[in-house]
Specification:
alpha/beta, Coagulation Factor XIII, Chain A, domain 1, 5-stranded mixed beta sheet, about 25% helix, globular
Length: about 400
């Protein structure tokens, strides 16, 4: 038996974009047919290549993570592997039974009950009726829907449908399991059950393909990571290498601030207060954007004010590379005051020590009045810091490294 579970050779998928009903109207099609018969040029329909010449081999027992922005082609690839759709060109070979959870409610009939949909979905995935009956109680227990098993699935929430779909897919005893964002659905306890099931499948040397925007899950559970960009494979390597390169690419594409300092000074003429520039430095006040966990980070916010703003504060909000808020820091209006006109001033924020673990982070900066619920100026992604050091595969998870000590008490 080959040790290759999945083979793709120059697989491509093309879609025709349809802008509205008029694109496919009968009159439009007749006009196109007439033009062909008369030998006239027919304008080509607008096309979109979701995948373009993708070639790869995945070994049995590998857990492969896929990263990429929305629309990069990750979900299209999983749909082709699960035979939900077919490639426009290219060849693929999939060896083994495939279990797929690639879309909420995929394979479910809204008018049927949860019980009926288990048998329907299981049959679609290649399970015999006796096999489904033998595993029925385990499927229902895992999905945590026993109270609603005889309720039509159209009354289920998207989370309930996803739990049921994952449970069926995970219990068909698949050789290959395709998962698209399932770990982002459900409460913490169900996510833990999914991760435990994923670990069990890995122990059984099953092949798992995981698509997720949660890069922590990708890093922790993947043996290799594939970065897909505009329908093509851009990079294949170990999780840390690919995730780091992907984050660098994503944040490099961001537009930091509102332009140059000269442009900001021009804008300041129309505002009572304006942020001119935001710069990051190391402990020795050298301009720096790359740091290690535990370093000192100095952030200088240059500003201009036209008049006294007694209730104003400076604030910095921190997000991860995908824009998820991680918290913020605000000045005390009694200690940092804007008491009169200043053509250019600087307020400094020092983070000592830097507690973020390995990753890329963006910082928003603003001047506002919390009492009036008013912003005088707000600069999104005004600065970026890249943190090296403790990885999620090490002693920390999430985004923050907590100074700590473990000890075993007798």
């Amino acid at each position: 038996m080959s040790d290759i579970a999945i083979e793709l050779h120059n697989v491509s998928k093309k879609y025709r974009l349809r802008r509205g009903w008029y694109v496919t109207s009968l009159g439009n099609e007749i006009a196109r047919l007439s033009a062909r018969m008369l030998g006239r040029r027919v304008p080509p329909r607008e096309e979109f290549w979701a995948l373009k010449d993708v070639s790869l081999e995945i070994k049995r027992g590998d857990t492969i993570g896929f990263v990429g922005v929305n629309g990069a082609g990750k979900s299209t690839l999983l749909k082709i592997l699960s035979k939900v759709t077919v490639p426009t060109r290219g060849t693929l070979t999939v060896r083994g039974r495939v279990g797929a959870l690639i879309e909420v409610g995929a394979g479910f009939h809204p008018e049927l009950t949860g019980r009926d949909n288990i048998f329907l979905n299981g049959a679609i995935m290649g399970m015999r009726r006796k096999e489904i009956q033998a595993k029925f109680d385990r499927i229902v227990e895992f999905a945590e829907i026993d109270q609603f098993i005889d309720t039509p699935i159209k009354h289920y929430s998207s989370g309930m449908q996803m739990r049921l779909g994952f449970s069926v897919a995970a219990h068909i005893d698949p050789d290959i399991l395709l998962i698209d964002e399932v770990l982002a659905v459900g409460d913490a306890s169900f996510q833990a059950k999914c991760l435990n099931k994923l670990a069990q499948l890995k122990e059984q040397a099953k092949t798992v393909l995981l698509v997720s925007h949660n890069l922590t899950n990708i890093s922790e559970h993947s043996k290799r990571v594939i970065w897909i960009d505009h329908g093509k494979i851009r990079m294949v390597d170990d999780p840390d290498t690919v995730v780091h390169a992907y984050l660098e690419h994503v944040t490099r594409a961001l537009t930091f601030g509102e332009g140059s300092a000269d442009q900001a000074e021009q804008i300041a003429l129309d505002k009572p207060a304006c942020i001119l520039d935001v710069l990051a430095f190391d402990q020795k006040e050298h301009p720096q954007s790359h740091f290690n966990t535990g370093d000192v980070v100095v952030l200088d916010i240059a500003y201009s004010v036209r008049s006294a703003l007694p209730g104003a504060v400076f604030g910095v909000l921190i997000q991860d590379a995908h824009g998820y808020p991680l918290g913020g820091i605000v000045t005390d209006p009694e200690s940092v005051k804007l008491s009169g006109e200043e053509a250019r001033g600087v307020v400094r924020l020092t983070l000592n020590p830097l507690l973020f673990i390995k990753g890329t982070y963006t910082l928003d900066a603003y001047i506002g009045d919390p009492t009036l619920k008013k912003y005088y100026d707000y600069r999104r992604t005004a600065a970026k810091i890249v943190v090296h050091g403790t990885s999620v595969n090490g002693v920390a998870s999430g985004h923050v490294h907590y100074p700590h000590r473990w000890e075993k008490l007798k």
